[in-house]
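Lecture notes, part 5. Sequence design as translation. It can be helpful to think of inverse folding as translation between two languages: the language of shapes and the language of residues. The source text, in structure tokens, appears below.
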């Protein structure tokens, strides 16, 4: 089993304070101020409708009030309305409009707008993919202490994407992000300690950061922590603990976790051997087009474990895995071809 880390998905911070739900009286006051033309109140009222904070959740009204604040140049409302357009909440889905709003917000100095604009360039959403421009906007946001941008910028330094590779800088940015409690920064910092990139290799600190991120719900960290238990690095080797973390990751939708927990059911490692459950998890992983899941599903069909034996289906899944570059799938497919069991 292997570890992976990946580019982080877009997250939008909408600026609501981490406090208890607003009272109805507070909602009434914000509504009065918004109707009187106060831009901050209009943006805040959009937040309240967005999250059902002090009033019933209503995306249409959230978008309406964000637009009123946008009309007055409110940078927070610009990024929040962009999020509404990006996800089709209360407005028609319009990625181009989302990009335009993120751009305006970013140029107005809003760190979340800069982060989201960087992501749009990074992924090619609403604009031609441009790593250099993505790097530029991530850096702008990171300089303001934006934790997600610090993590994403760290990945660009790690990969040498949009900039020269700099492992020390990548480690520094992951550390800054992790120390703010950002889940992806914690996972990536664990990976740096795990692999000894930009820092002396340290299994104990790798496990510490993986565990912190895993406890916050990172499926990637959960998978990596499962591997650490599986091979006994930084922790006492424990198949049962490895199974626990792989299962949690799998239940959280990790395709790699699904394949790993399938293998543990297939081999009876850390749990009771169960071909039917192994097959089920391999199928879930394969449905996400994961190379390991596809390859392991092919193996189940080749040998008839938990399913009727079928060379045709085995070859199909091995070929899918091989097309993704999975070395085991390539090898197994060639063996079936050499044995006259596949074309």
């Amino acid at each position: 089993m292997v570890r992976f880390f990946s580019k982080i998905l877009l997250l939008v911070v909408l600026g609501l304070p981490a406090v208890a739900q607003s009272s109805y009286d507070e909602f009434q006051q914000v509504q009065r101020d918004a109707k009187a033309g106060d831009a901050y109140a209009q943006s805040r009222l959009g937040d309240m409708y967005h999250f059902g904070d002090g009033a019933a959740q209503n995306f249409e009204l959230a978008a309406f009030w964000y637009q009123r604040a946008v009309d007055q140049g409110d940078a927070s409302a610009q990024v929040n309305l962009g999020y509404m357009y990006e996800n089709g909440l209360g407005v028609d889905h319009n990625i181009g409009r989302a990009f335009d709003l993120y751009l305006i917000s970013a140029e107005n100095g809003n760190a979340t707008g800069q982060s989201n604009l960087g992501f749009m360039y990074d992924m090619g959403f609403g604009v031609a993919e441009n790593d250099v421009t993505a790097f530029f906007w991530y850096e702008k946001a990171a300089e303001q202490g934006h934790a997600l941008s610090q993590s994403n910028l760290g990945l660009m330094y790690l990969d040498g994407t949009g900039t020269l590779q700099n492992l020390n800088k990548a480690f520094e940015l992951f550390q800054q992000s992790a120390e703010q409690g950002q889940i992806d920064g914690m996972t990536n910092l664990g990976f740096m300690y795990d692999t000894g990139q930009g820092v002396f290799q340290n299994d104990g600190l790798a496990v510490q950061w993986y565990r912190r991120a895993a406890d916050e719900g990172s499926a990637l960290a959960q998978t990596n922590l499962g591997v650490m238990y599986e091979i006994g690095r930084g922790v006492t080797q424990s198949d049962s603990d490895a199974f626990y973390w792989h299962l949690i990751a799998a239940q959280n939708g990790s395709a790699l976790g699904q394949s790993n927990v399938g293998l543990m059911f297939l081999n009876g490692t850390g749990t009771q051997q169960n071909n039917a459950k192994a097959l089920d998890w391999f199928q879930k992983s394969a449905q996400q087009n994961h190379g390991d899941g596809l390859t392991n599903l092919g193996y189940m069909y080749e040998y008839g474990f938990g399913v009727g034996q079928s060379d045709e289906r085995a070859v199909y899944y091995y070929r899918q895995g091989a097309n993704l570059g999975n070395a085991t799938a390539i090898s197994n497919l060639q063996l079936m071809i050499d044995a006259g069991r596949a074309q």
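The translated text above is only one of many valid answers, since several sequences can fold into similar shapes. Confidence is low (pLDDT under 50) at residues 1-20.
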